[in-house]
User: Fold this.
Amino acid sequence: GTTIAAATLLVGVLGGCGGKSTEDRMAEAAASAMLGTDVSVDDDGETVTLGSGENAMTITGGDTAQLPDGFPANVFLPDDYKVDSTIASGEFTMVTLRAPGEVGSLADEAKASMESSGWKQQMMAGDDSNRIYAFRNEQTVASLSFVRHDEGGVVYTVQLSEAPEWPKPTG
Assistant:
């Protein structure tokens, strides 16, 4: 929680600065000390990487944000969208994007797409102003949330994580 919040704050503070200034390098050093891990901020300030190797967490935001490498092709994406931010770390990915339209129709489209791609719906809550779904397949749990954006359109967030093993039949 604190790590993600601090890194997200870094993306916001450094975003759009262009090139690493002395202040950018000082912010990296301060964040590394505060979080107890390596912190790297790219030149445009819109990508922060915490840690390294397999345990690294990468957070992106701003105009250059895009889907993380390896984002599953069978997870619903609207025809028209802009990625706002991403968090990717090992077996966890979260993508927040904006799309035109209404919550109810976009959520209905997502449900149909996920089910036709082999996902099993586990849960649904909400209405036409906000809705959340949980889906599962053999390897992954997907949480899809849809909320109306104040400026129009929909904020759509996808969280993907490794699925726990299916319970074994008893008896």
Q: What stands out?
A: Residues 47 and 60 are 4 Å apart (CA to CA). The mean pLDDT is 79.
